[in-house]
Amino acid sequence: MSDENKPHDDHGQDAGHGHDDHAPAASPEPDHAEPAGTHGAERHDEAHAAPAADAHHDEPAPEVHPVADAHAADHAGHGHEVQAEAAHGDHDAAVTAAGATAAAAAGAAAASSRTPVWSDSGDAPFEDVDTTPVYARGKTGRKKGKSGGGNETVEIIKTIVFALLIALVLRVLLFQPFTIPSASMEPNLYEGDYIVVSKWSYGYSKHAIPFSPPVFEGRIFGQQPERGDIVVFKLPRDNKTDYIKRLVGLPGDRVQMINNVLHINDQPVQDVVISDADAANMYGMPVIKARETLPGGKTFTIQDYGPGNQADDTPVFEVPEGYYFMMGDNRDNSVDSRYGVTENGVGLVPAENLIGKAEIILFSWTEGASLWNPVSWFSKVRPSRFFTVLH
């Protein structure tokens, strides 16, 4: 026999014993039987209504077997309150079990919603774990990492840009370095000398800016250079090439070479030979050094190969307003204002082409030194010329 039929047998047995055990209840007293039946009916209705009211719970209440309900109803009609109360007790147990299940589910949900306690190993996420899905948390962290790397790159770029701007401002307004490429200014400047030029000495023109952009004409904050200054300027015939010479003629001067002697405003410039040692240049010509003093008192050393050379006798050069006359200190080995533009020379130099005044020799290397040959930085160095102030 299956378990499903067992309650029916019990019902039958209970029914048989019910009439024997509860015989006094069978006496014809309607005042007691009717209330008992009514109470049983009310219990029976509550037993069916209460589960319906709790039907919304997550866990369904245990089902009361229909045979038990029928049994309770049958005996309720005979006033068997004990059986009705047993059925009601089964219902209360079912409701209690359903409430316990719902409370457990609510507790589990609350526990899962609380922020987890993280260890000290650095495994706590940076995002809000209450609102960020589990599958997206790792992606959020990686995005933040990428954002940080991008910010670092931006900062590096800003640093480079600011450094370049500072270097540009210093180069335009204050100083500019140059390397001497030839021997035209010997014995004061040698090929391989690394010099610094002050940019504020004569004011600023478009040639003070790299690549000489045509932003304005003439000079701003212009100042008159002095006779005898060593000047860096743009070659007038191309306005691109940097030249360095000594300024010997100011606007309004008359300059001429007569028999290897410099004349300014028809007056010979005083010079004194300080060395006629038995030396010769690469062509076998004797090298003579002399101390020359320009009008105004500026004194410096020049180098000459003696009379009879190409530029030892020249016509008179009249320097107009706004121009300057330049000559090299190595008088017989310098292409300067004594040679006109048509002779691939310098000619007269406009004031706008002046870049600055040579101030100091920072470093110096002999011929053969190369930036791409680090060994030459030490084998070709001339320490005696380091930090030499120019006159």
Automatic annotation (TrEMBL):
A Pfam family this chain is assigned to: Peptidase_S26
Mode of membrane association: Single-pass type II membrane protein
Membrane-spanning parts: 156-175
Reaction(s) catalysed (UniProt annotation): Cleavage of hydrophobic, N-terminal signal or leader sequences from secreted and periplasmic proteins
Catalytic site positions: 184, 245
GO molecular function, one term: serine-type endopeptidase activity
Protein location: Membrane
Lineage top rank: taxon: Bacteria
Record EC number: 3.4.21.89
Region (Disordered): 1-63, 112-150
Chain ranges of the Peptidase S26 domain: 154-362
Keyword Magnesium carried by entry: no
Gene3D superfamilies in the record: Umud Fragment, subunit A
GO cellular component: membrane
GO biological process: signal peptide processing
CDD domains reported in the protein's UniProt record: S26_SPase_I (cd06530)
Keywords tagged on the record: Hydrolase, Membrane, Protease, Transmembrane, Transmembrane helix
PROSITE patterns linked to this entry: SPASE_I_2, SPASE_I_3
Family: Belongs to the peptidase S26 family.
NCBIfam families assigned: sigpep_I_bact
Record protein name field: Signal peptidase I
